[in-house]
Design goal:
single chain, mainly alpha, 2 domains, 75% helix, disordered N terminus, disordered C terminus
Length: 273
Amino acid sequence: MRLRPDQLQPVAQAKKLRAEVIKLRAKVSEGSYGDAELRRFWRLAETAGLILFVSNTELSERAGVGANFFSTVARDKRRPKLHNFLRALTVLLEVANERLADVDGDQIIEKSGSEKISERIRQDRFSLLQLARSLAQVALDEIEKLDAERPNDPERISAHERQRELFHIFADGFTRIARALAVLEIDRAEPAKLRKATKIVEAVGEKFNKWWKKNGDEAIDWSVRIPVITAGVAALGWAGAPMALGTSIVAALVGGEKVMNVISRRSSKAPKG
């Protein structure tokens, strides 16, 4: 179907907005933002609803940032928290993709979760192998620390159990991922081995998503261990695992090679002997 002239301008505007959101999100995902990024965001927040034919309330609700967020953030010149900034940008991108996917000639072909994981393994297998091994060991170290703490307070005991559950997911999951990636070193062209590694990454990501859905709000307050959680989430996201919105926001804060740096710094601070 050919677009009428009166339809071309809205499509062009939506494409432009999407491009601006992608650039801004890449910048903010580095872990901070300044006045320039904030002003760009205010402009996007003011115009997104009209361009994408969606209400500010719907955008806010989808992002989980409060019903009046998009209506007031620019008007009141507010500086949102980093995670809310990223949530809002992610939803703008999702809605822009949805709108443009409805337009003939601008179909957005999304790769499946399995395809994304397989592609990332082919591209970054060695780095992912190193990372999986490191994170498996870090998770085991955290379990050992938790076992040594032995709290008496019922609430702390309950929190410790949830933390142990999480780090067992990491320890077992990243160990399995590392083994599957190591097997690929022998024959990287073997489809069956690549499929197996892909399924393992996908399964670990799904298991973590289920845990996060139940405990994510509380986990954000575990300040002592949040760097390890962030690194684990980011590693799964980097590997292409399908992550829920909340975990993808966390993953955006520390992605790609930055995860290696986080683990390296943590390892260098560990007591010797």
